Structure to design on (335 residues):
């Protein structure tokens, strides 16, 4: 079978493509730019901007292709309020729409599509199952929720679309918001927490995400949505405390009144000086834990990586790069 991965040169795609190649499958990576990755010795690269319908069609989708949409604009780098809609929607929503329309034109019915847990917004019930109310808190989550609604429409027309809602994906080669945390630890500065830090924080490894996409294909692309997150996430204070100790830093954790910090961040956001996106800080002290048992039941997927190990590996990768050391691509997940 031929597998076409839109956004396949990005974070999850660069781990999915080698998995599919190892299964003996034919892989086409469609993305804006091509990195120097070893799997391109076997995979074919096609330059494609998903915001351009003509470019998407020119990829040449065939009826029996397995399609993956991993293209997305993320919450990093932080955008000012006025620019968020125009930043997220062209790729996240319209890009998805272009891919699905090209699939329909080619008669290709099978799609694995990544959205986000941020479609849920505030926590009402935890752990959050896939039927948790969806009320996103910003343009990123909303753009992703609308792609899920788009998927529902096309399922009614005969498509098979598996949706994945990951927590914060971490793994080698990308730090995102964690870079700010690591700088504080490097400089032996206090590490502020929004709230007491008693609530858990859940990651998901990029390796586990890639495996989920592969297993969805193996399972026949169920018309379902699946949460992706680690098992048994620890409280924030333990997660960060273990990191500080492992780093040998003199930093210490600083609990803060969550309501006051959120109002301050709201003010900075209104003044176009955002430090974090509202979709991040408004839920920072909530019990945002995803129930991932559905993916195990349907796909046989079980996350393999612990939050503590992922975060420490991320910091070690950050330090190695600062020190000019090479980092093996098979390193335990960082971010």
């Amino acid at each position: 079978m031929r597998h076409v991965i839109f956004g396949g040169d990005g974070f999850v795609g660069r781990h999915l493509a080698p998995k599919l190649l190892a299964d003996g499958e034919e892989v086409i990576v469609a993305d804006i730019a091509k990195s120097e990755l070893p799997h391109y010795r076997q995979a074919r690269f096609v330059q494609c901007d998903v915001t351009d319908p003509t470019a998407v069609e020119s990829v040449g989708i065939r009826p029996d292709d397995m399609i993956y949409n991993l293209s997305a604009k993320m919450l990093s780098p932080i955008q000012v309020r006025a620019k968020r809609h125009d930043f997220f929607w062209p790729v996240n929503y319209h890009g998805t729409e272009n891919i699905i329309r090209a699939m329909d034109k080619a008669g290709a019915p099978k799609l694995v599509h990544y959205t986000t847990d941020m479609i849920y917004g505030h926590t009402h019930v935890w752990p959050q199952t896939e039927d948790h109310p969806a009320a996103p808190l910003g343009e990123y989550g909303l753009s992703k929720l609308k792609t899920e609604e788009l998927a529902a429409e096309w399922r009614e027309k005969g498509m098979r679309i598996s949706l994945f809602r990951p927590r914060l994906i971490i793994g080698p080669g990308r730090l995102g918001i964690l870079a700010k945390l690591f700088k504080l630890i490097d400089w032996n500065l206090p590490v502020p927490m929004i709230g007491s830090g008693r609530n858990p924080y859940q990651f998901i490894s990029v390796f586990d995400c890639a495996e989920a996409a592969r297993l969805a294909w193996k399972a026949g692309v169920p018309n379902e949505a699946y949460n992706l997150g680690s098992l048994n996430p620890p409280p924030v204070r333990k997660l960060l405390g273990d990191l500080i100790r492992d780093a040998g830093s003199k930093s210490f954790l600083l609990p803060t009144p969550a309501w006051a910090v959120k109002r301050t961040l709201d003010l900075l956001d209104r003044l176009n000086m955002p430090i974090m996106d509202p979709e991040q800080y408004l839920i920072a002290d909530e019990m945002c834990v995803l129930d991932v048992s559905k993916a195990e039941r349907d796909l046989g997927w079980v996350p393999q990586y612990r939050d503590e190990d992922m975060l420490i590996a991320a910091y070690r990768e950050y330090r190695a790069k600062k020190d000019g050391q090479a980092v093996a691509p098979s390193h335990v997940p960082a971010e």
